[in-house]
């Protein structure tokens, strides 16, 4: 049974001209609306834009900000880029995984919290960095990182 709000998908599709160049913005809007890209929505996008479903799924799988599985309502993102790695990102990962009972890339069973990593958040001077729903927290220690939860 589908849990996709087809009218919401329809409104997102109607908000842009049905042209292939709008594929990525549409996928971003669907991701924001559903916290992931439901299969039914991707097929609707392919039909509306008249592009092969394989292309839609390929683009959806390419970008880390897009996901085939639901992301947490609250998302902790640990930077594991070079600057953060050198300044202790590994200890932050270990600490957060232990505290949350999640591994990187996982979402809690109730869907409320997700933990993921990125390669650089562009805030290297603040390394090591974690974002919570996009808000940047820098110069973290494992103890300070746990206070973010
Ligand atoms: S490496 Fe972490 S913000 Fe750049």
Helix content: 40-55%
Q: Strands of the biggest beta sheet: in what spatial order?
A: 2-1-3-4
Which ligands does the model contain, each kind named once? FE2/S2 (inorganic) cluster
CATH superfamily of the largest domain: Glutaredoxin
User: What is the CATH topology of the largest domain?
Assistant: Glutaredoxin
Kindly estimate the percentage of residues that lie in beta strands according to DSSP: 5-15%
| Overall spatial form | elongated
Q: What is the string of SSEs from the N terminus onward? A: HHHHEHHEEEH
Helical stretch count? 7
- Count of extended strands: 4
What would you note in describing this structure?
With 149 residues, the protein is an alpha+beta fold. The chain has 2 domains: 6-62, no CATH class; 74-147, Glutaredoxin, CATH 3.40.30. It contains 7 helices and 4 strands; from the N terminus they run ααααβααβββα. It has helices at 6-14, 23-34, 39-49, 53-62, 82-86, 89-100, 142-147; strands spanning 74-79, 113-118, 130-132, 135-137. Helix 1 packs antiparallel against helix 2 and helix 1 (6-14) runs parallel beside helix 3 (39-49). The relative contact order is 0.14. The protein binds FE2/S2 (inorganic) cluster. FE2/S2 (inorganic) cluster (FES) is lined by residues 79, 81-84, 120-124, 127, 129.
């Amino acid at each position: 049974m589908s849990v996709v709000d087809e009218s919401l998908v329809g409104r997102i599709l109607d908000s842009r001209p049905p042209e292939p160049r709008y594929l990525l913005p549409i996928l971003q809007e669907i991701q924001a609306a559903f916290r992931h890209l439901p299969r039914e929505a991707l097929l609707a996008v392919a039909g509306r834009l008249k592009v092969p479903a394989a292309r839609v799924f390929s683009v959806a799988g390419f970008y880390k900000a897009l996901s085939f599985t639901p992301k947490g309502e609250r998302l902790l993102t640990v930077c594991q880029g070079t600057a953060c790695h050198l300044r202790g990102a590994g200890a932050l990962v270990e600490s957060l995984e232990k505290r949350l009972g999640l591994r990187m890339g996982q979402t809690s069973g109730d869907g409320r919290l997700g933990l993921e990593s990125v390669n650089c958040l562009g805030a290297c001077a603040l390394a090591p960095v974690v974002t919570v729903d996009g808000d940047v927290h820098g110069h973290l220690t494992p103890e300070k990182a746990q206070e973010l939860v």
